[in-house]
Amino acid sequence: MPAFDAAITAARQRFRPIVMTSLAFVLGVLPLAVATGAGGAARRSMGTGVEGGMLAATFVATLFVPLFFILLTERRAKTRARRPAQETGA
Fold first, then answer.
1. pLDDT value, residue 34
2. What is the largest CA-CA distance in the chain?
3. d(CA 11, CA 70)
4. What digits encode the pLDDT tens for the residues 54-79?
5. Deepest in the core among 16, 47, 60, 67, taking most CB within 10 A?
6. Are the C-beta atoms of 54 and 32 separated by less than 8 Å?
7. Neighbours of 19 (CB within 10 A)
8. Is the pLDDT at 88 greater than 80, yes or no?
9. Residues 25 and 53: beta-carbon distance below 8 Å
């Protein structure tokens, strides 16, 4: 299977589990992000940082991981295609 087709298939299969896990984590941290009372400011800042990081990581996992897989697979294929020619020429 070509790298592009493999990446698209894998992205479709992994999208739901990634989003469900991320959503559960973000909702679990939500009380920290809306904390009030003693120490509420520290909890809010920590909660919003964790939520923002998790949302960014979800974005990276769903979009950029398949892209990087395609780029690295194509690069490796090009390197392997050139390697025999370099060995015979030396």
1. 87
2. 73
3. 12
4. 999 998 888 888 899 999 998 888 88
5. 47
6. no
7. 13
8. no
9. no
Amino acid at the residue 63: L
Type of residue numbered 52? G
Dig out the tokens for 81 from the structure.
């295609």
**Rounded distance between C-alpha atoms, residue 87 and residue 32, angstroms:** 59
Q: Are 59 and 76 in contact (CB under 8 A)?
A: no
Q: What is the pLDDT of residues 2-42, one digit of tens each?
A: 888 888 898 888 899 989 999 999 999 999 888 888 888 89
Specify the 3-state DSSP secondary structure of 39: coil
Round to whole Å and give the CA distance between 80 and 74: 10
Measured CA to CA, the distance from residue 79 to residue 83 in angstroms comes to: 6
Instruction: Write the single-letter amino acid at 13.
Output: Q
